[in-house]
């Protein structure tokens, strides 16, 4: 998001500067999906927001992640002030005042509820009813929850990093959600909803999480035996690197940024969900519910998840490099 946003140096978020200044604000990590320390570098250099970083691919499961990564303390400081919300508001070229004003507008909500309605119609119409609860990690302004509530009469709850959105939800739906980075709240969330949620949503949020597996395992604990997990994310190949919706093809160095710690693709995305204790019911590289995202619907299982075949892992790593070469060749030809 916001890659074309014009920051003067004074506007560089303070957490970015801290990352440059202090070794204490970063830590080397094993693969957040499979815990392996074996990885190969994909990119090392200047990232999207102007700071240095390194993207690697896990040699065991093929997950792409940033290491060293910022500590939870740095993340909490970044999200505690409103710089992240401003980044998002700036991205859509509206002022913060205008963005807040739209929450008073019925036409805005009608449009926003469509995500929840599509989710209901495509995956949940025979699952979700008025006696059920839906929980949304990274629920934003609550629009998905609102759409699902409208479609099914279900109860709703969620977690959101931005206190501004949490206030919007309190006013609109009368629900006090969990406010802050999921990492610091997960134990309380599980405690409140253990085995009670019919649906858990993690839509476009896992890339921000220090530990996405912890979130998925928490979702598993929260779900009823017949519950459903719904997750969606950009695919690094199909939505970041490819020419998509008229956007130019991008190199890895033009994509990576500190607040996106993970870059997903089908092989590791599926493995991540299975390793967290789920059976995948459906996978779509292009979601109908949230266009320009890949999605998974899953249910709980106790079956073991074998790691991806080493040949498939090698093919994914080869694919990134081939993609980069092709993009560079394209650009040279244009000139
Ligand atoms: Zn791994």
Automatic annotation (TrEMBL):
<dbReference type="InterPro" id="IPR029063">
    <property type="entry name" value="SAM-dependent_MTases_sf"/>
</dbReference>
<dbReference type="GO" id="GO:0032259">
    <property type="term" value="P:methylation"/>
</dbReference>
<keyword id="KW-0489">Methyltransferase</keyword>
<keyword id="KW-0808">Transferase</keyword>
<dbReference type="GO" id="GO:0008168">
    <property type="term" value="F:methyltransferase activity"/>
</dbReference>
<protein>
    <submittedName>
        <fullName>Methyltransferase domain-containing protein</fullName>
    </submittedName>
</protein>
<dbReference type="Pfam" id="PF13489">
    <property type="entry name" value="Methyltransf_23"/>
</dbReference>
């Amino acid at each position: 998001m916001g890659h074309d946003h014009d920051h003067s140096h004074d506007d560089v978020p303070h957490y970015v500067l801290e990352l440059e200044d202090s070794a204490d604000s970063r830590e080397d990590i094993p693969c957040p999906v499979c815990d392996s320390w074996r990885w190969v570098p994909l990119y090392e250099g200047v990232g999207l927001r102007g700071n240095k970083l390194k993207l690697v691919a896990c040699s065991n499961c093929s997950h792409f992640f940033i290491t060293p990564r910022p500590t939870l303390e740095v993340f909490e400081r970044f999200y505690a002030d409103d710089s992240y919300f401003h980044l998002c508001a700036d991205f859509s070229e509206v002022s913060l005042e205008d963005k807040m004003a739209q929450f008073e507008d019925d036409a805005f909500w009608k449009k926003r509820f469509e995500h929840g309605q599509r989710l209901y119609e495509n995956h949940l119409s025979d699952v979700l009813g008025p006696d059920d609860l839906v929980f949304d990690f990274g629920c934003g302004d609550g629009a998905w929850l609102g759409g699902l509530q409208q479609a099914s009469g279900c109860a709703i709850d969620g977690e959101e990093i931005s206190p501004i959105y949490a206030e919007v939800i309190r006013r609109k739906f009368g629900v006090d959600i969990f406010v802050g980075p999921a990492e610091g709240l997960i134990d309380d969330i599980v405690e409140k909803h253990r085995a009670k949620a019919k649906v858990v949503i993690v839509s476009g949020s896992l890339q921000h999480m220090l530990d996405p597996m912890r979130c998925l395992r928490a979702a598993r604990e929260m779900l009823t035996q017949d519950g459903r997990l719904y997750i969606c994310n950009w695919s690094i190949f199909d939505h970041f690197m490819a020419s998509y919706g008229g956007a130019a093809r991008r190199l890895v160095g033009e994509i990576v940024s500190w607040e996106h710690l993970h870059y997903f693709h089908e092989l590791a995305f599926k493995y991540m969900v299975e390793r967290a204790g789920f059976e995948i019911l459906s996978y779509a590289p292009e979601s109908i519910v949230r266009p320009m995202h890949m999605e998974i619907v899953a249910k709980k299982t106790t079956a073991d998840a074998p790691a991806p075949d080493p040949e498939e892992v090698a093919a994914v790593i080869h694919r990134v490099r081939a993609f980069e070469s092709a993009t560079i060749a394209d650009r040279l030809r244009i000139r």
